[in-house]
Structures are given as structure tokens and as C-alpha cells.
Amino acid sequence: MRTRKQALKHLEKKFDIGEFVKPIDTHFKPWLDELNEELKGQEKEVKDIIEILLKSDRVYTVGLGRSRLGIMTTGMRFMHAGYQVEEVGHPYAPAMGTDEHYKDVLIIESGSGETNYAVTTAKIAKNNKVPIIAITSNPESRIAKISDKKIVTKGKRIYPTDSKIPSEEKEPINFMQTKSEDKASRIGELLINYTAKMRGLTENDMQKRHANTEYLKEPS
Fold first, then answer.
1. Could you give phi then psi for residue 115, rounded to 5 degrees?
2. pTM of this prediction?
3. What is the SS3 assignment for 160?
4. Displacement of CA 38 from its chain's centroid (Å)
5. What is the pLDDT of residue 220?
6. pLDDT class for 147, splitting at 50, 70, 90?
7. Which H or E run contains 186?
8. Could you give all domains of the chain from N- to C-terminal order, each with its CATH number?
């Protein structure tokens, strides 16, 4: 591990834009191809999930850490598509599965599938007869088992294939659970894109629900 001063000197001497963009080929493309095959192998499960989403009008999301950030972007897109979206644990989030005017669904993002907070939330949803959709890398986890439908992806680290580097010296291209989280975010985008198309929504329809409080220009 280098000090900041050493790192800056290293940057000055050895910056290589080719090395900077290398993960696009070594990390992103391979796992996107892998995700493509994984989803094709879960066709019925994905179709059933789309059906649940089309029957729902209020989406609850739950995730912690980076998984929370990923599921929040998915939730935002569902909001743009006309769903009422609630984040579990938010002070303004209403009770789940208790309002007869809404058909609720819970979407959980958890790489490990063992996050206690998400497990507890899933049990509450189950008790209130709310369908549970999970995106996880662990098919044997508690969340996977309690969910009504799930999409399972491989979340292991990706290591360089260069044979010149001894195995014990190889550092992963993607740190920690990045691969799992990246896949989950892409799955969220695929779900909302397909659901929106099934409902005949256009980009203009979704743009109308985009936040209008973030522009600097004052309304006339």
C-alpha cells in the first residue's frame, strides 16, 4: 500500500488511459454476457416477476449499503413509470400490505441474501400477503427462500487471466461485491424497461414524472 504522496508520484509517472479503461473489457463486458445467460436460464421466473409488477401499483424497496443505492435507482424509475414507490424504513413510508386501495409488492436487493434488516422486512411482507421479489447472489439464503420470486446471479470477484501474474499476487479487478451490485442494478433497469413497454409507456410519459425542483431556472 502506498502513501498518498507515493500514489501521486506513481500517477505522474505511470498514468495509462488504456489501463484506466481496461475494466470495460475485463470486467464489464464479461459479466454482462454472463448476466445475459443467467437471465435466459431463469425465463419463467423473470416472466412471473413481470406479471407481479404489472398487477401491482405500489412498490416497496429495501437494501442496505451499496445495495440500497442500487435499489433506490430502480425505485426512482418505477416512480417515473407511474408507480407509488416507498423505501422501507423511510419516515414517510406507510404500512405495507394494509391498504386495500393498493396492490403492494416488495423488491429486495441483497447480494448475500442474509441481511437481517431485509430478512425481517421480508417476514413482515409475508405476514401481510405482499409478494416478495428478491435479487440476490445466494440461492440458499434466507431471503431467497422466503421470497415468492427471485433472480439469482453470480457475484464472485473477477481476477486477471494474465498467466504471467502468479495466482497468489492477483488482485481482483472488481472489489468486494461490486459484480453482484452491478448486476442487480442492471436487472432493475431491465425490469422497469420491460414493464414500462408492456404498459405502453413512452419516454415522454416517464419524463413527465421526472423531478421538476432541481432546475436552476425559475419558472416564469
1. -65, 120
2. 0.81
3. coil
4. 15
5. 60
6. very high
7. helix 178-198
8. 21-204 (3.40.50.10490)
